[in-house]
């Protein structure tokens, strides 16, 4: 992303603290916009999805089926969706359902405090998935 304007990233989560932490951790690398789940209604374009280049979705706060939520975003032509989930371990039925629904990447959130060091661990996984999706656009 050198030289070009940063990709517009919508950070969608039911948790305001997580939205703020992710926004701060990704500041400068992406043009971030935090949004609640209500702001990202998969039934139609919203402020959170309409102008986003990428969507980082924390699926843990979704009432109902997270895969249906992702499929709805995909059907309305929303940006590529990177999903964070505590229940979607690699290869699990939950992760596979999210991929089938159209998720670009599914990252398994570790239990407990979310480590957002972008230099390693889970933070580096988030950054890698976002960078790959941004470059593929």
TrEMBL record:
SUPFAM superfamilies: CheY-like. This is Response regulatory domain-containing protein. The lineage of its organism: Bacteria, Pseudomonadati, Pseudomonadota, Alphaproteobacteria, Acetobacterales.
